[in-house]
Amino acid sequence: MNVIRGMNCFSCLSDHHDQKSGTGSGQCTTTELSKRLPVPSREDERKALLWAAQSGRLAIRQIESAEEANFFKGYGTPKSFTLAQQGMTRRKWADQQKWVVGIVDPDCLYVYKKEADTWRLEQGVAADKLGVKLLPDLPSLAEKDEEIQQRAWWNVYPRSSPDTSGHLGPNGKFILPKPKPYKYNAPKSVSTNFNDPVPRSEIVVTPCRKANIKCFFVERDTARNISDILRQKRRCEQALGLPLPLVVFCRHTGSVEVCYDDELASEHLTIIEDSLDVFASSRRIPSGEIRRRMNLLPMPLQAQALSSGLSIPPDDQPKWQQAIQLVSHPCDDNYRELLALKASGLSIHRCYFHEGNITSLLDMLLTSESLRYTEAHDRVTEFRVDKVAPLLRLLLKSGAIPTALSWSLIRQMGEQNQLLMPPDLFNYMLAAFAPFKFLTLKNLWNIPLTSVTRCSGSIIEFDRICQDFNDQQRQHCLKEELSRNRLLQRPTLDTLQSHLLALFHYGAVPDEEVMDTVKRDLTYFDDNTRLIDNLSVPGFIEWVGDLWMNREAHTLFQNWPAHVEEARQELAKLKQSLDLPVDPFASVTPVLQFMVDAFSKPPVLPDNVGDNEDTIFKVLQHYYRRPGPERVIASLRNSSPDTWKEYHSCSHVLRARNNGLWYMELLEKCKVHSFTPIEKRLLPLAIIYQDAAYKDVDESAVKTKSADYFKRDLAGHYPEKLLNDMALAMVSMKTRAEDKAVQNLSEPVRRYLRVLRFAVHINQIRYSGVRPFFPALAVAPHKVPKAEYLGLPTQLAHDFSSEPDHQTEFQRHLEAAMHGAADLMQLQVANCPSDKRENPYTQVYGLVPDGKKITIQFDRTTKPVEIMDRFINDKVRRKLAREAGIITCSDPDHQNCRADPSKGVTYGIHNSWYDLRQVRVPAEMTRLEKMQYEHDPSLLSPATQQALAEEVQRLKSAGIRMNTGTLTQETLASKRALKVLKDRGIAVVSEKRPYVANDGLPGEWEMLVPIKTAKPVTPI
Questions:
Q1: 989 three-class SS
Q2: Degrees to nearest 5, angle at CA 564 with 559 and 566
Q3: Gap between the Cα atoms of 220 and 703, Å rounded
Q4: Sign of CA dihedral 966, 972, 978, 982
C-alpha cells in the first residue's frame, strides 16, 4: 500500500501512529498551494508560532552566512534542521554567533535522533548508512525526545537499570533492555550521563525555500544583549530579504516568546545594555549578573525597562538641565539648589542618556572639576574643594554611582594629555567605591604623596599596589617613574621625589641596570634640555643618585608606614562622614531602580484564569522562578541559583496544591465542609500564591505580601469579596488557631484557613522525616495541637484513636492519604529525611530518586501540573503492578522479571516512561483515592475497587509489553516483525517522499512508516 504524505503529523507516538487518508498528514495539494492566502495579522502569526514552538513543530537551523542564505533562494533542495525542544538542554552549537532560522511543520525526508553528519548524503552515502539510526517519521522522534526527558529529569528507577529502551528486531523477537556505554556521547563508561546536555536531533527537510522560513530563533540561556540579538537578526533578514519575527526560548523560566522589532528596539538600547557592566563593576557585582537577571523578564518588558529606566521623562527635562548647570559650574549656593531639586522629586542619583552616552550628575561633576583642576596654574590655591564637596556628598549619599565616563577618567589618570582628577575628589571616589583593583602606579603619577589630608586615597592605593609587587615588578616601576614619558608630563620635583622615596621604601633600587636603562631612554633629550625644576639630563641623573644615597634623611622615607596608617585613618573618617550604606548593594539600588520596577510588574495571566496548567505555569514562572523586586538587587551578589525559593520551590507548592485538593475532597466526603465550584477553582490558586513572596521579604511579612499579590493579580477574574476572604485566610496562617483573632474570623474564612493550613503544613514532613508511627495523629497529649497546626477540625481530632478498630471514618481516610503525601515527598525532595515506616515506600518499590534533580526540573518544566499529576498516577500504577506480581527489575539478565523475548512480554518494570505507563489508572478514580490506594485500598469506592481489580487481572494475564523501540527499515520490512506489529494494532505503510536534488532534478525516497489503526490494515 503506497501512501504519499507529508511528515508534519505530531499527533501520535510510535505505538499510536494514526493512519491518514487522502493526501495524508496535511501535505497540501497543488490546487491548495496555488490559492492565494491572506497575509496573517501579527497576532495570528504570533499565536501560530507560539503553538508551533510549544508543540514541538518548530524546526531550526544554523546558517553560515549570507552565502548560505542564497541557498534558500534556489530549488528548495533538502537541508538539515533540528527540532526546537522547549525545556530540553541541548548541546550548544560551536559557533553561537551564527544565525538560527526556523520553519514550521517541517516535511521531512529523513529523521535522525541525533546529529548524523547528513552532509555526507551529498557524497553518495545512503541515508540509512550514516551510523545513526534512521527513524521512520517525526512522531518517532517526538517519542524518543519524550523518553530522553523522562529518563534525564524524572527518573526514579535505579541507575543500575538497563539504559537502552529495548526494541523489536527483524527476526520478530524483542531485544531486552541492556546497558549501553557511551549512550548519548556520555564521557564515561556508564549507561548514560544526563547531567550533560543531550545531542540535537537532525532532520532533513524538503522543500526548503525562502518562503518556508518563518522566524529567527534564539535561546536566552546566557547573558546576551537584546541589541546583539536584534543586530544578528537584521543581518540575517537583509541576507534573506525577509522580515522575520523573533522566537525566544528561555530554559531557566520555561518561557517561549514571539517578539517583533518595534516591541524591543529603542534608539539607544545598545549603549544602555553595554552600560550594565559599568554598573556592575562600580559595586563589585559579578560580570554579567545584571543582564542575567534582566533576562528572566519577558523580553519586551526587559527592553522597555532598560529604555525608560535610563531616559529622562519629558516633564523632567527642565529640572535636569538646571541640575546639569549646577554640577557643571559649582558655587556656594549650588548645593541648596540641587537639594531643592531632589526634594521636588528629581532623582539626582540616576544614570541617563545624554549626548550619546550614559552619564550621571556625578559624572558631570567629576569631569567639570577635573577639567578645572587640569587647567589651573596653581592647583593648590586655585582649586577649592569646599565648593565641590557639598555637591559631591549629596550625590553620593543619594546613591549616585560612576558610569563609564567617570571610570574612564580614573583609568586614564597618568596618561599623556588626559584630564587630571583632583586628589581631593579621588579621595571621595575611593571612600565610596574602593578598591580600584585596575589601578597602576602610573595612574597616580600626577598626585603627590606628601599631604595626608589631600592625598590620603593616593597614598593608600600606592601602598596597596606595591604590597603585591615582586622584586622585578618594583624595579620595572622605578624605571617607569624615571622614564622619558614620565618626565614629559612635567611633574613637580616634590611629586616625583615622594613617589621615588616610597618605591625605595618597598625595596626598589636604582642599580646599574636601572640607571643604564634610564640614561638610554633620556638620550632623546640633549644635555641642555631642562627636564624638571631646571635640571638638565646629567643633573637629573645626579639628583636621583643623591636622593637614593640620602633617602634615610628624608622624613617621608623614614615614616612611610606611619604615613600610610595616617592616610587610612583620614580616608576612614571621610567614608564615615559620607554615611554610606555598609552593604555596597544597598547603595546600588537607587541606580538600578528600573530593575526593581520591572520585577514589580504583575504577571500577564491567561484568559482562562483558574486552577489549570496555563494559569499555574504563569504564576510559578513569575514568583518562583526568579527573585522578587525586594531581592533582585541583593541576588546580584552571586550567580543564579538552581532554584530561587529553596525549600519552597515549584515542587513544594505543587505538592501543597495537591494536598489542598484531596483534603477538600475529604472534608466534603465526610460532610465536614462543602465548597462551591468557584471556591474549588480559587483555593488551589491561593495555595500556590501563599509562598509567592518567600525569601523576598522578611519571614513575618511573607503571607501578607503574598496575599497582596493574590488580590492584585486575580482582581477582575473573581469576586472581590471572595479574593479578600481568601487573602485574609492566607495572612492568618501564622496566627495560632486558638487566638481570638482567628476565632473572630467569618465561617468562610475559617474554612479557607483550614485548607491552607493543612495543604502547606503537611509538607513539613520534609524537615522531620517520616517517623515510625507516622502520622501519629492520635498520640496524646499532642493530638489536639497537631490537629490545630494541620487545620483539622478540633472536634474530629478529639475522637482520633490509635486503635484501628476504634478509628473514625475521617481518621482512616485522612491517615491513608497522609501516607500517600509522604510517599510523594520521598520521591521529590532533595535530602529528604529517611522514611522510618515499617515499609518505606522507595524500598518497597526499589526506587532511587534524585530529589535534587527533580526539584530543579520542576523549576524548569513547561508542564508543572501535568508532571505532578503524573507522579501521583505513577504511584497508583506501581501499586497495581505489584498486586499483579510485576516487580521493579534492575537485573541486567532479566531473570527475575520473566521476560519472554519471543512474546514480547515481561513481568518487570524497567522505567516509568514506557513500562509503567502501560498500567491503566481508572478514569473514575478521584485524587483522594489515588493518595489512599497504596495504604488502605478498602477506603476506595466499590466502583474504583472493581476497576482496579480488573486492571490487576489484565496485568496478570497480559504482563508488560516490551518496547518496540526504534523501528528500523529492516525491521519494518520483515514479515516476522510485521506480524508482531499487526498483533499490536500497528500497520506499516510505504511512504514516498518527493524532493528536488541540488541539480534541480526531482527525486523520491521511499520510507516504511508504522501507523496505529483502529482497523487492521493489510501489510505491504
A1: strand
A2: 90
A3: 32
A4: positive
Question: Are 959 and 886 a contacting pair, CB within 8 Å?
Answer: yes
What backbone phi and psi angles, to 5 degrees, belong to 345? 110, 0
* Rounded Cα gap, residues 192 and 198, in angstroms: 10
Residue with cell 520596577: 597
Q: What gap in Å lies between CA 475 and CA 479, rounded to an integer?
A: 6
Angstrom distance (rounded) from CA 13 to CA 145: 11
Please state, in angstroms and rounded to a whole number, the distance separating the CA atoms of residues 389 and 428. 9
What is the grid cell recorded at 168?
523489536
Mean of pLDDT values over 910-921? 91
- Coil/strand/helix, residue 814: helix
CA–CA distance, 162 with 178 (Å, rounded to integer):
4
Cα–Cα distance for residue pair 927/590, rounded to 1 Å: 49
3-state secondary structure at position 245: coil
Give CA–CA dist 503/203, Å, rounded: 67
H and E: helices and strands count for the chain: 44, 20
Angle at 497 between CA 496 and CA 498, to 5 degrees: 95
Q: Is the dihedral of CA 651, 653, 656, 661 positive or negative?
A: negative
CA angle (313 as vertex; 311, 315 as ends), nearest 5: 155
How far are the Cα atoms of 557, 728, 729, 896 from residue 745, in angstroms, in the given order?
78, 9, 9, 59
Grid cell listed for 104: 514550521
CA angle 73–79–80, rounded 5-degree value: 145
Please, which residues bridge with residue 216 across strands?
A: 101, 246
Q: Which of 276-285, 685-694, 973-982 tops mean pLDDT?
A: 685-694
b (16+ CB within 10 A) / e for 370-381: bebbbeeeebee
Half-sphere exposure of 164 (CA within 13 A, CB side): 18
Phi first, then psi, for residue 469 (nearest 5°) are: -80, 145
Count of residues making up the chain: 1020
Q: Contact at 8 Å (CB) between 718 and 611?
A: no
What does the pLDDT read at residue 149?
80
CB 267 within 8 A of CB 230: no
How far is residue 682's CA from residue 807's CA, in Å, rounded to a whole number?
32
Closest Cα to residue 607, out of 615, 619, 597, 596? Answer: 615
Read off the C-alpha cell for 300.
519586551
Place 40 in a pLDDT band, splitting at 50, 70 and 90.
low
Strands 79-83 and 202-205: antiparallel
How many Å apart are CA 736 and CA 788, to the nearest integer?
8
pLDDT interval class at 954 (50, 70, 90): very high
pTM here?
Answer: 0.83
pLDDT at 382: 56
pLDDT at 157 over 60: yes
User: How many angstroms separate the Cα of 973 from the Cα of each of 14, 172, 981?
Assistant: 16, 11, 11
- Taken in order 93, 94, 95, 96, the sign of the CA dihedral is positive
DSSP string over 641-670: PS-SSTTSSHHHHHHHHHHHHHHHHHHHHT
> SS3 letters for 334-388?
HHHHHHHHHHCCCCCCCEEEECCEEEEHHHHHHHHHHHHHHHCCCCCCCCCHHHC
Q: Read off the pLDDT of each residue in 23-34 and give the average, rounded to a whole number.
A: 33
Closest CA to 907 of 892, 934, 888, 890: 888
Alpha helical stretches, state H, 762-849: 765-768, 783-790, 794-798, 809-828, 841-844
DSSP run (H or E) holding 985: none
State residue 141 phi and psi, 5-degree precision.
Answer: -70, -40
Do 502 and 449 touch, CB atoms closer than 8 A?
yes
